[in-house]
Amino acid sequence: MGYTYVKVKNKGGATVMAKKKLTLAQKYHIYTRGLDWEPTYVNKKDIYPYAEYEGIKIKDWNKWEDPFRMTVDAYWKYQAEKDRRFYAILDGFIQNQGHLTLSDARYLNSIKLFIQGVTPLEYMAHRGFAFVARHLPGAGPRTAGFFQSMDELRHTQIEVHAGSNFNRYYDGFHSMTHMHDRVWYLSVPKSYFDDAVTAGPFEYITAISFSFEYALTNLLFVPFMSGAAYNGDTPTMTFGFSAQSDESRHMTLGLQVVKFLLEQHEDNVPIIQAWIDKWWWRGYRLTSLVAAMMDYMLPKRVMSWKESFELYIEDQILEGLFRDLEKYGIRPPLHMEHSIKEKEFLSHDVYWILFSFTYAAAFHTWIPNEAEMEWLSEKYPRTFNQYYRPLYEKAREVKTPLPGDRFYYLSLPQLCQVCQIPMGFSDPDDPRNVVQRHVEYKGEVYHFCSDGCKWIFEREPEKYIQSWLPVHEIYKGNCFAEPPKGPDDVVPQVLRWYNIQTDNFDYFVSEDYKNWKEWHKDMATVVV
Amino acid sequence: MAFGEVKALYKYEFEPRDKAEVFGDDIIVYAYWIDNRFFCSASAWRVPKNMKWKDFVNQISSLYGLDPEYKNVKKWEWFHFDESFKPEDEKTLIELGLRHKSIVKFKPA
């Protein structure tokens, strides 16, 4: 394609057909709207069975303005070029033993979290957008969904390739998909995306394109990609560059979707508002893992979680985006105020959870060294020294029988029924305690880490009573490689079922640390 | 509290995955040390309904005893959810009014 035929007069004055190159806009129209048709012998409702049940009313799909005009041929060309660049840089990094020039092997624990927790979500996003591309009755958004579906698959592939070079040398990279379906802390990202893909196409696209891609992506990507740059991780940084232009397309789509739905019918406004309320809190809770990574796991730090939250959420999203949306009758998400109150606690709470249960995690944690403690107290003058430094001082003193000269939490935690994170979030009004909420539904009690998660449950309880909570599943006997031979064999059998081998425990008793020291024994760069 | 319904193409109703029946003669009980953030969250335990209170306390002390403060406390004040309660050592969890997914909280008296 790329050409059309037009009627022209030849020299003799006769009308003939001539080939004519299409403009980009014409080409785009043919590739998208031109591929759509009105069914004649099948009912449209049978073709798009998911289009109406969510209550969204669309008067005219033709009012959809394409936020970007990308044709399939241009897409292939462009993405292939980006892939060539990415793989050239990756090959160079591998051949030059680039992993040895990282700031420190501790850095890779954030990449382990990424590859286990985020990469499988890219794949789920690929599936989710394929669903959107099939089931939205408008040709324009279907095309946008198709491109994003392809993007997400490409991101999955190149993240796996970027991570696999580290797998030869370091723990925690070997079983990402297996672990994603099983390991306790990975049920947090998994359940988030399962929640989204089991919704209808309109909720899915609001949840992922708008609430995640538009409102939260910066909070996720900037720390990972800048963190990679600061810490010498060229593969991850190059992946970031390769994904950046896709991400900006995704963000544009997110905003366009929400504005289109709001403009189509006033009845859509309360539905969209409720989805924004739900998916803000779901996404925000998910990014708390990023908060812990930013403040604790990067040997060379980019900025604190609090600074990042103030810049990307308070300045850009609250003061920018939600001011723009006021005219549609949309207000900032419910529970946003609580996330602002939590900003001085969140990263510390979550790292303390990860630290406490590192014996069952496929990454390492460690007590921050003195310079890092200083950085934390400078960035968090109202909370770190008061509430968190004493925990690490005590953790040094309290020994357990497990490897690592420090404390581990030798039991299982209470999990939130909705976000599935251990219920360890500080009450900003009473920081010596965590927030605990519960509700009774059809004779059973359910517990929540926050008013946000409780509100989400109460809105759709039948969805969340099905939660696969890792702690309860262990207690039901569903997570053992073989039946435990006694109480001391319970955790080992769970770890075997998770396929956690030497991936767990404190960094300073890890294979990673031992090897790193060995590889750098003649160099003065090892952190001790 | 009015609960919402899940919008779906069919009647959307499910059995709770972790309902009491699934655990038979056992229940899940959560324990939480008030004002002590050393334990990042409440802990979860699968225990027999007919376990005596003293045995339950003994079991959870395997965790809470890790904190050096624990052995210095002579007497604890207990709460069932947020209600003050006075457990007796020889009574069972059920006799004391605990149920599946109860939370007991404690602090030095």
Give a description of the structure.
The complex is a heterodimer of chains A (528) and B (109). Chain A is mostly helical. Chain A has a single domain, classed as Ribonucleotide Reductase, subunit A (Orthogonal Bundle). Chain A is 56% helix and 6% strand. Chain A contains 22 helices and 7 strands. Chain A has a two-stranded antiparallel sheet. A two-stranded antiparallel ribbon of chain A has the order 4-5. Chain A is globular and about 95 Å long. The termini of chain A are far apart. The mean pLDDT of chain A is 94. Chain B is of the alpha+beta class. Chain B has one domain (20-108): Ubiquitin-like (UB roll) (Roll), CATH 3.10.20.560. Chain B is 11% helix and 27% strand. Chain B is built from 1 helix and 5 strands. Chain B has one helix at residues 53-64; strands spanning 26-33, 43-48, 76-80, 83-85, 102-108. In chain B, strands 2-1-5-3-4 form a 5-stranded mixed beta sheet, with helices on one face. In chain B, a hairpin with a 2-residue loop joins strand 3 (76-80) and strand 4. The radius of gyration of chain B is 17 Å and the shape is elongated. The mean pLDDT of chain B is 97. At the A-B interface, helix 15, helix 17, strand 3, strand 5 and strand 6 of A face strand 1, strand 2 and helix 1 of B.
Task: Please specify the SSE layout and strand pairing.
The complex is a heterodimer of chains A (528) and B (109).
Chain A: E1 3-9, E2 15-21, H1 24-31, H2 44-47, H3 72-95, H4 108-135, H5 139-167, H6 176-180, H7 187-197, H8 201-214, H9 217-230, H10 234-264, H11 268-286, H12 288-297, H13 305-325, H14 336-342, H15 346-356, H16 370-379, H17 384-397, E3 412-413, E4 426-427, E5 430-434, E6 437-441, E7 444-448, H18 451-459, H19 461-464, H20 470-475, H21 490-498, H22 511-519
Antiparallel strand pairs in A: 1-2, 4-5, 6-7
Helix pairs in contact in A: 3-5, 3-10, 4-5, 4-7, 4-8, 4-12, 5-10, 8-10, 8-11, 9-10, 12-15
Chain B: E1 26-33, E2 43-48, H1 53-64, E3 76-80, E4 83-85, E5 102-108
Parallel strand pairs in B: 1-5
Antiparallel strand pairs in B: 1-2, 3-4, 3-5
